Amino acid sequence: MRLTLNIWRQRDAASAGSMQKYELDGVSEDMSFLEMLDVLNEQLNEQGEEPVAFDSDCREGICGTCGLMINGQAHGPEVTTTCQLHMRSFKDGDDITIEPWRSDVFPVLRDLIVDRGAFDRIIQAGGYISANTGSAPDAHAAPVEKKKADRAFDVATCIACGACVAACPNGSASLFMGAKITHLGELPQGQPERYERVVNMVGQHDAEGFGGCTNIGECTAACPKEIPLDVISQLNKDLRTALKQGR
Amino acid sequence: MASAQGTSPLNQPSQQVSDDARGYYTPGDPLVDPVAPAGPIGQRWTQRIFDNRLVNPANRRKLDIIIVGTGLAGGAAAATLGEAGYNVKSFCYQDSPRRAHSIAAQGGINAAKNYKEDGDSTFRLFYDTVKGGDYRSRESNVYRLAEVSANIIDQCVAQGVPFAREYGGLLDNRSFGGVQVSRTFYARGQTGQQLLLGAYQAMERQVAAGTVQQYTRHEMLEVIVADGKARGIIARDLVTGEIETHLADVVVLANGGYGNVFFLSTNAMGSNVTAAWRAHRKGAYMANPCYTQIHPTCIPVSGAHQSKLTLMSESLRNDGRIWVPKRAEDCDKDPRDIPEEDRDYYLERIYPSFGNLVPRDIASRQAKNMCDEGRGVGPAVTEVGEDGREVQVRRGVYLDFADAIARMGRKAVETKYGNLFDMYARITGEDPYATPMRIYPAVHYVMGGLWVDYHLQSTIPGLFVTGEANFSDHGANRLGASALMQGLADGYFVLPNTIREYLADGPFEKIDEAHPAVVEARTDVEQRIQKFLSINGTRSADSFHKQLGNIMWEYCGMERSEEGLRKAIDLIRELKQEFWTNLRVLGTNESINQSLERAGRVADFIELGELMCIDALNRRESCGGHFRAESQTEDGEALRHDDEFAYVAAWEWGGEDGLPVLHKEDLIYTAIEMKQRSYK
Q: Which end of chain B is more exposed for a tag (fewer CB within 10 A), N or C?
């Protein structure tokens, strides 16, 4: 198939960017979206034009590195990561607009690449259980109710791709944060730091400049791992409890 | 069993008679692990933990440790050494440590917990791992791995890793990779992700505590070896292009495997050999580089645009039947229209007792044979044929669940394999419930890597190597659910207890950026980058990478022969020549430049590829993932030659124009008798 691509080009964080138009022919429906961009880049290199910079690594939907706004939707039209989106979701003659994640907190570094360092800093603020190596009791010392263990796993599948932020009209990272708070909060090992954790993570989230949540739900609709919206309710509940306790 | 105590040798050093790689290498002195432990095998590690000197807590904060890579091995080491109070600098090329490729591991992690009371033990896990590695691993290291495996599970649970549990709230186990006990812990099909996030979170906690400094989007391009010791690295900031010098008392490489030398593999796009290869060129020996594991059940290549391959759990072979059409002319028919009598269930035909459950290497090699005969299925892909011309070949075989669905019902198949079927449907656009899946083998792990001693120290003092990047634990073949075990064993428990013996002599005399070794390393890096940017040829780094991958896959893939390997070496040498004269890298160093990043990685892959072929050529035996056409039984099964090759081939860099030097480390077993692997 033949496509018209409108792609955001930006030299570096300090430069202004603009949309550029490219025509690409011979796209097969079996290509992944990123393989389609590989073909474009090979063509650009041949023409002496610098290839389009974009992030990707595992290309099997688990590392969370890739992420593009495709026709205004985070990761495009399917519920999956950009690397698992295939060209059979498009048709011959389509116009496709490709932009980097939309968020002030994720500055563009070049073309379609953004800086998501804020996510690491939110985890540093409390997204962990303090358990020094070697200090652990036997794994069977604390049984975990299966329902809770399964829920912890379901929300622990977050890949920190940033689609939730890019999709949110408020630019909030509440889904990302709620997933980690719920994962650790469902487990007995996570209880001692539970309320300190939520206060510190929310504090960092706000300090980074992410917006507040107004329960619109765009985040969960865009999430390739289908993290449910109620992790944000869990976050809010833990935060209320923490504040009542005067933390 | 006296031998189980592990005190006396059960085999003799091997004597190599064949010399296929003559002319391609220089024989070197034998290699001996200088810190190999002695005594009964079950007491070696405990004794060593005691014998290794301690570093007092006040001194730890005066010691700087550089760790390259943030996967299970690197992330776990950064967290643990940070907790201990050392100054850790952690480097990764990804935008966050959490994205390292350990995250993609699906199946599980082995541990000798014996929670199922099914006869498992440290010794049994040790035995299975050595046997699975086809008796080409070092037994002391493997025993230690089995020994610490149980602690890993405890540690991960304490961190909040959400392993699968039973209704009683205790951890669930499954059996994996053809062993007879259930010792695999798992978190659905995303065990690697959950374990990595555990290590990542532990590491981020140390970042907050100030003991670990994290450098993301940084690529190590050179190791600094000053006065005979590894003292730092040269890294490029992938955002600004700045070339940075980082100095330390010790350097740890945890940079993963080099399966991407084949271009197409299940590795991440960025997985590369550069950190290890630069260290190799500075004096670290590369051990058994040809040992590659090829996984039989991956989604096939769909065209020349293919950028990577996706693995599907091998459990599919439990219920699926593998076949190709009997006649080549049927290959483009709808498989459902091909009647039973025109199908060749080749594994069931050739191996009537094991059928579709033959070992990974056999299943892989037979799939290749069927496609080479012209009986492959699915879209044809372009390959370069024997005569150098392009040919169209179908690279796929059917994995058919029609019988399973008829026998078990669609619902049962859905419950058991639903997520894999969904993944397949997403990638191929085909419905595997209605039409047979197509599969083909793909490279997914390398057992070879930098040579290390029992302390995980390479042949460069002060340079330690952990995880997939080293060679020591899996021999010629890795068992399922053992990669995660090894990465975390090295990072959490082994390295922290061995590195202190080295650091007890520190802090070492400070060196600064004016030290000749630093200046030399920096200059090398800068000149290389300038070279890439100034060749101004016509071809992209990717195009060279693809060509290298084709050569490696054809001649150093599932089946290797003397003739093919010689040809491959010639082809790689020609490719290297063209690479350095016809590469095109646009843009500059002073910004994000992904073409430049790739050029550096491909340059190193080309040199590694040549060494892999030389190693494969020298090893005229079939063992584990290494199958030499010249060494098989009458039935076409792998034939090991313990009399000639029960050794680790450790290769020393021979210089830009010199030949690599082969050092042999004899594998002497004291606790396990070597046996020919059998699955008849």
A: N
A79 touches chain B (CB under 8 A): no
Picking from B399, B204, B544, B633, the residue whose alpha carbon sits closest to that of residue A42 is B544
Chain B residues inside the 8 Å CB shell of A108: none
Query: What is the domain class of A116-244 according to CATH?
Result: mainly alpha
Residue B394 is given by DSSP the state E
- Provide CB contacts within 8 A for B527, sequence distance 6+: none
**Residue B177, pLDDT score:** 62
Q: CA–CA separation, B442 vs B305, rounded Å?
A: 16
Cβ contacts of residue A230 below 8 Å, gap of 6+? none
Chain B nearest-CA distance from A196, in A, is 14
Average pLDDT on A173-191 reads: 98
B204, B264, B265, B595, best to mutate vs chain A, most A CBs in 10 Å? B204
CA distance to A58, B89, B268, B308, per residue, from B612 (Å): 24, 32, 20, 21
| Per-residue confidence (pLDDT) for residue B2, from 0 to 100 | 43
Residues of B in contact with A35 (CB under 8 A): 305-307
Contact A124 B94 (CB under 8 A): no
Beta bridge partners of B218: B237
- In CATH terms, the fold of domain B295-444 is Flavocytochrome C3; Chain A, domain 1 (3.90.700)
pLDDT of residue B678: 62
ipTM of the complex, rounded to two decimals: 0.98
> Which CATH superfamily hosts domain B2-7+36-294+446-503?
FAD/NAD(P)-binding domain (3.50.50.60)
Catalytic residues of B: 360
Instruction: Report residues of chain B scoring pLDDT below 50.
Output: 1-3
CATH of A3-110, one of 3.30.420.40, 3.40.50.300, 3.10.20.30, 1.10.150.20: 3.10.20.30
CB < 8 Å from B in window 178-237 of A: 183-184, 187, 189-190
How high is the pLDDT of residue B1? 45
